[in-house]
Amino acid sequence: MALSGFMSAKPAWASAYPNKPITFLIPDGIGGGASTYVREFSVLLGRYFSPNVNVAPINDQGANGQKAALDLFHATPDGYTIGMLGDVTSVKQGADLLDKLSWIANLGRSSFGLAVNAKSNIQNVDDLKKLSQTRQVVFSSSGKSALSYFAIKLFCKLNDINAKVVVGYKGSTDAMLAVTRGEADATAQSMPTLKPMQDSGYLRTVFVYATKSPLPGVEDATSIGQPDLAEIIQWRVVAAPPGTPPEIVKTLKDAFQNIAGDPATIAWSEKVHVPIFFLGSDATKRAVEGQVDLVRKWQDVLT
């Protein structure tokens, strides 16, 4: 009976968690896609607990998300540092990072789109192919470790497009502005990122990296016969350092699940065009592994 009572008792740290501020690392800068998620969910997560706690969103920008991932990996595994991961292409695939992180949840899922200047004569994939027969098609990207870079390179490889990818733009906004200024013919970004520029009449999406395009008349991976392009997905995954106690991971997972399903959160996501797509810990791990497998399959396009 004494043993049974001991086994059923909760450790003091578990019953008290959380009892101090939580740091929520962001892999991009202010205004970036991950930043939008983390800043809103930080407020809601802090209010979810009773008593309320302060959840501090910290922009930990660098190397297209790799800095935040490494800082998270080396943080104390006590539940007081969590983070949203950037693109899996920004994480060294040979490292233990993705295998050892404690997966909490996934909060969003977005397809990518390939967009051109709204005034461009390019209307579809065939137009890009025809242009590449006369000169290199110029694409803009924030860097070689960005998922957008992988999306561009794989698209061009599978469609035999002679391309030049100009990197070094400071984030997705600068990469899109390069297209509006005529510095590049096209760029690839997540659909929510492209939407404001498209709605304002600056960009036009000519291809969607999805099985079925949500935009009438716009080609997709099925219509051009390249199903692997539909597997390039912008996940919004949240993780904790390796070795974080399972009880704390579950507490955070349950909190995010309840917040994601709240009507107020859903209304916010519709208002700012940021999709909510919740996955639990195990499903999040599988989603990341699937994306890693895709990148490894086509690793040659990154060299």
Which structural class should the secondary elements be placed in?
alpha/beta
β-sheet strand percentage: 15-25%
Do you know the CATH architecture of the largest domain? 3-Layer(aba) Sandwich
Query: Which outline best applies?
Result: elongated
Number of domains: 2
Main sheet makeup: 10 strands, mixed
Q: How large is the count of helical segments?
A: 12
Mean pLDDT: 90
Count the E strands: 10
CATH topology of the largest domain: D-Maltodextrin-Binding Protein, domain 2
Q: Termini distance? A: 62 Å
- SSE order, as H and E? HHEHEHEHEHEHEHEHEEEHHH
CATH top level label of the largest domain: Alpha Beta
- Uncertain runs are 1-14
Taking all Cα atoms into account, the compactness measure Rg is: 21 Å
CATH homology-level superfamily of the largest domain: Bordetella uptake gene, domain 1
**What is the helical fraction, as a range of percent?**
25-40%
How do you describe this structure in short?
The chain is of the alpha/beta class and 303 residues long. The protein has 12 helices and 10 strands. Strands 1, 2, 3, 4, 5, 6, 7, 8, 9 and 10 form a 10-stranded mixed sheet that branches.
Give the key terms.
single chain; 303 residues; alpha/beta; D-Maltodextrin-Binding Protein, domain 2; 12 helices; disordered N terminus
What does this structure look like?
- Helices cover 40% and strands 20% of the residues.
- It has helices at 2-8, 12-16, 33-48, 66-73, 97-100, 125-132, 147-158, 172-180, 191-199, 246-260, 263-272, 281-297, and strands at 22-26, 55-59, 81-84, 102-117, 137-140, 163-166, 186-190, 203-209, 219-220, 233-240.
- The longest helix is centred in the last third of the chain and has 17 residues, at 281-297.
- The termini are far apart.
- The relative contact order is 0.17.
